Amino acid sequence: MAVTLHTGDLPADLDLGPVVALDTETMGLEPHRDRLCLVQLSAGDGDAHLVHFPPNVPIAAPRLAALLCDPGVLKLFHYARFDVAVMRRHLGVASAPLFCTKIASRLCRTYTDRHGLKDLCKALLGVDLNKQMQTSDWGSATLGQEQIEYAAEDVLYLHRLHEHLDILLLREGRTQLAAACFAFVPSRAELDLLGWAGVDIFAHS
Ligand code: MN
């Protein structure tokens, strides 16, 4: 695994191909409150690219933003709702098209309620993910080597999970339903940012 650290934006000459795994690290779990600190990306080749946003530097990442809204690039997330909201707020663009491994898992693995990334990696790939750095401080001016390796790992298995989950969605006849849910994620993320985070707008009361 090679991890390349970039500051502020992706480099101009980087081509990550038609399917890109993405994750973010932030100062917390409130997308309207907590600052974006890091965006991790992988082409699915076992390598990762990290874009670090140091504190007190205004975020302007036109190349990353262009990738997020490129209609020819499928973005893979785990729990896309959060990453899409936080990048919508900081980079000004919605992410589409996308595939969310958590939504996919919920739709086709109805025999379990364990849909975390660690659970999926274990159940579908037999891989043990180390989530120890999840709660570390991502807001500092320089990231530690352990943080860098942990952050990179979060995007290394999304391509393989995507392949497994696509097969399960097809088997269960839920491919189209999943696609409709993925297409709604940018709107769901916008509702979160606008103040409807805790509200199911489809609920009767
Ligand atoms: Mn992560």
Which term fits the overall shape?
globular
Q: DSSP helix count?
A: 7
Class based on secondary structure composition and strand pairing: alpha/beta
Q: Which ions and ligands are bound to the chains?
A: manganese (II) ion
* CATH topology term: Nucleotidyltransferase, domain 5
Structural domain tally:
1
The CATH architecture: 2-Layer Sandwich
Plain-language structure description:
The protein has 205 residues and is α/β, with parallel strands linked by helices. The chain has one domain: Nucleotidyltransferase, domain 5, CATH 3.30.420.10. The chain is built from 7 helices and 6 strands. Strands 1-4-3-2-5-6 form a 6-stranded mixed beta sheet, with helices on both faces. Strand 5, helix 2 and strand 6 (98-100) form a beta-alpha-beta unit. Helix 3 runs parallel beside helix 6. It is globular. The termini are far apart. The model has no long low-confidence stretch (mean pLDDT 96). The protein binds manganese (II) ion (MN). Manganese (II) ion is lined by residues 23, 25, 154.
Task: Outline the fold blueprint.
Elements: E1 3-7, E2 19-26, E3 36-42, E4 48-52, H1 62-68, E5 74-77, H2 80-91, E6 98-100, H3 101-108, H4 117-125, H5 145-156, H6 158-171, H7 175-196
Manganese (II) ion is lined by residues 23, 25, 154.
